[in-house]
Amino acid sequence: MSDYNIAIEEEAVRLIARSSISDRFFSDFHLLVKDGKLATVLISRTVFIFCEKSRIDGRFLVIDGAACALSKAKPNSYDPFERIITLAISKFENSVSLPVKWGLYTDGARRGSFFAYTAAKGSTSRIFYEDRCDSSQNLYVYSVTNEHVEFDDVPISRSAYTDFGDSLLDAFIAYENIDFTPAQNDGVIEIENPGGVIAHGWSLDEWVSKKLTTSQRKFIEKDYSQSVRLRGAAGTGKTISLVVKFLRDFLQFTADGKEVRLLFLTHSKVSADLVKDLIGQLDRDGARLNSANSAAKIATIFEIASEFVQREQRGVSPIDIDAYSGRIMQRELIESILDAARLTLATQFSDEASPSFIANMLSDEHEVKRRFAFEIMNEIMSVLDAEGIRSGNSKALDYINAPRPEWMVNLSGVGDRKIVLDLHRRYRELLREMRVISVDQLIADFVSFLSSNVWDNIIEREGYDAIFVDELHLFTPLERMALKPLMRHSSQFGGVQPMFMAYDLKQSTRDYFANLVTDAKSTSNWIGKTTDGSALVELNEVFRFTPQIARCIADLAVSFAEIEFLDEIDRRVGESAIEEGDVPEMREFSSNQRMYEWAFGHARSLATSLGSGKRVCIICMNDDMFAVYRDAGRHADHLISVESREDLNDIRYAGKRFVYSSPEFIAGLQFDNVIVIHCDRRTIDENELGPLRRRRNLSRLYLAASRASKKLIFCASLELGGISPTFTTAIAKQTVRVP
Questions:
Q1: Residue 647 backbone dihedrals phi, psi, to 5 degrees
Q2: How far apart are CA 278 and CA 270, in angstroms?
Q3: Positive or negative CA dihedral for 369, 718, 642, 201?
């Protein structure tokens, strides 16, 4: 049926965007679902998809030939269809942007194209579309090519679009006559709303009137006369509090006739998608989208930056350094630079560099080389790129000569920093040769744009009156610099530029805030760099995991006491408000192999017995071993490996396969059962690298453990030193049980 065309009404597009589509749909295009009355109607050679909210005068996504949507790079992968649906949402709602790594290219008007698959699948196929086809509000996807070609070389056949228009009335009449009474969910596994996990199916009115805690209510009742910080541990309801306030206030402003532009920013795509799903559930009538002169946009900071900067890149693509593969690529680039230049640099700076730094740089021991390359990569990402420091500029002189806090990576010699600057120069040259830029470089360009005359001329039209920020602890100093400039000068709130920010420093797995903390004992300076004058609201009740998991995480958080720049309150986790569960376990194995066999076998068994693998997750703490276990043949067909934000889409098609990932890529998600592997001494406790590296490891562990809602198991290998001392307190207090 690949020669059939597809036409999906906009409300049905939104429903499909949060649904798990079965393989059967992709073979016969049959849908008949009670929930939402989602159904297909075949007229002539066009498959129409409607739902109960569909209108005959609504906007449509029209696809010329189902081959555009259904060609697959590998089994259980429907990237083209997923991407076309995302494209439609971006056009219908104007609140979603296509990720830059999709390689979006436009002709400056209505035509555009982007990659059909993730880069990891090695395909160069591109999807071509025309927006507002034939002066309508409809979106027309007209071709898929095997390579990137010019628009004029891709012919547009109008026959499919003409057939859609000729058949629309008959299709709608046929849909109106469908009897849903005996229907089973056929073609769609479930109409799944990920936000329901947090929103519990309650409406906005229910949340506002009776579901919020005292602290949450205190936050949402804050006015716009100043900025507000919302601090709370994982599971305390920071995101739902932000979303409820964002949506409730926007709807109230528009009801009062006030024209406002609000922006809800997250750091990761998965969090942005979660927020959109939450708002879709709370705003059931779509009132947010019905305002003509106001806007309530949800996006990542990266999407916002790319909207303004991408058109000027002229063929230069960003490197995906947030993905696991991108991080490995960066490290490999730096390792190759080190191999080529280390002898020259050691000779050149031998009189100025510290002996330990030179020894680590020249070492051929695998573990030392790996750690050294990681630290160089982190310094480049978190300090040099983030602060715009380059070899030869004035900031470089300050970088070389300024004292470094003891908790930062040890670069005690002046020559150490000169070597890092030279490595950074070589790294930038290599990126230029590859015609790619880093995310931090893109954000730097964005910050520069926000100080330009162009932005000054359009800020009152495209700027925002207030900004809501989730996951503030993940924003780099450079990204935080972009927040205030995004806001209008003539704000709707008496000249005040209010921001509402949620954060939990314990979940920050990188060092993006570290170099801003100067008093070593408080987060106040870090927050102060973000906004002038702000009120603080704290959340202390946990709603996402059992009391047993909450107590375990609280005892693990005791380890944060060693890190001086986290204050006392920020180490609290909170009391769980949900039902009792099992005490988390710690299992120790004689070797990595035995740990792998037990953990992956147990996860496979759980996924099979539950009938839903997306409720089970293995989280690997050891980056070096991640790929080893992923590629091991014994369980490879029974897991979904999440190595980037985009891989999260595949969870919807998990079936009985369990999820396998590292902590960074499942932030914001929750699983019934979590197994955290490599909680061993040599993975978690790397004290020789100083408290900065230890803080990163503790944050990753905290993030991993807090993904579990019902059952949590830790695993350690004697091959890598056995159980980490980080668990000493929890084991002694029996909040972690050792069988």
A1: -65, -20
A2: 12
A3: negative
Closest CA to 10 of 79, 106, 116, 90: 90
For the record, the structure tokens of 2 come out as 């690949």
Q: How far apart are the C-alpha atoms of 680 and 724, rounded to whole Å?
A: 5
Asked if 559 and 591 touch (Cβ cutoff 8 Å), the reply is no
Q: What is the largest CA-CA distance in the chain?
A: 85
Query: Could you tell me which of 51, 282, 9 has the C-alpha nearest to residue 188?
Result: 51
- The helix (H) or strand (E) run that includes residue 575 is strand 575-576
Instruction: Work out the number of other CB atoms within 10 angstroms of the CB of residue 187.
Output: 22
Contact by Cβ (8 Å): 512, 475: yes
Question: Is the whole model's pTM more than 0.70, yes or no?
Answer: no
Average pLDDT on 64-78 reads: 58
For 529-562, the pLDDT digits (tens) are: 444 567 888 887 766 778 888 888 888 876 655 4
User: Residue range 57-78: average pLDDT?
Assistant: 69
Which residue in 181, 163, 180 sits closest to 4, CA to CA? 163
> According to the per-residue pLDDT averaged within each range, which of 38-42, 71-75, 365-369 is highest?
38-42
Taking alpha carbons only, the member of 37, 411, 46, 317 closest to residue 188 is 37
Q: How many other C-beta atoms can be found within 10 angstroms of the C-beta atom of residue 90? A: 17
Burial grade of 159 (CB within 10 A; 0-12, 13-18, 19 or more): exposed
315 contacts 434 by C-beta, under 8 angstroms: no
Find the distance separating the first CA and the last CA of the chain, reported in whole Å: 55
Would strands 541-542 and 105-106 be described as parallel, antiparallel, or unpaired?
A: unpaired
pLDDT in tens, 680-719: 998 887 644 455 567 778 888 888 998 888 899 999 999 9
Predicted local distance difference test score (pLDDT) of residue 521: 37
pLDDT at 529: 46
pLDDT(100) > 50? yes
Q: Using CA atoms, how far apart are residues 383 and 385, in angstroms rounded to an integer?
A: 6
Q: Summarize the chain as % helix, strand, coil (round to 5).
A: 50, 20, 35
Q: Can you give the residue ranges of every domain in the chain?
A: 5-191, 196-312+459-539, 320-437, 547-732
Please report the pLDDT score of residue 317 as a whole number.
Answer: 54
Mean per-residue pLDDT over the chain, rounded: 78
Look up residue 288 and give its two tokens: 């947010």
Instruction: Name the CA radius of gyration of the chain, rounded.
Output: 26
Tens-place pLDDT, residues 224-233 = 988 898 888 7
| 3-state DSSP assignment of residue 423 | helix
* Cβ atoms of residues 409 and 537 within 8 Å: no
Which of these, 549, 509, 542, 506, lies nearest to 673 by C-alpha position? 549
Considering only 6-10, 84-88, 168-172, 491-495, which range has the smallest mean pLDDT?
491-495
Tokens 């985009």 locate to: 646
Complete DSSP assignment for 615-645? GEEEEE--HHHHHHHHH-TTTGGGEEEE-SS
CA atoms within 13 A on the CB side of 675: 25
Contact present, 402 and 395 (Cβ < 8 Å): no
Residue 420 burial (10 A CB sphere; 0-12, 13-18, 19+): buried
Q: Do domains 196-312+459-539 and 547-732 have the same CATH topology?
A: yes
Phi/psi for 734 (5° steps) reads: 60, 25
Say whether domain 547-732 belongs to CATH 3.40.50.80. Answer: no
- Please state which CATH number belongs to domain 196-312+459-539: 3.40.50.300
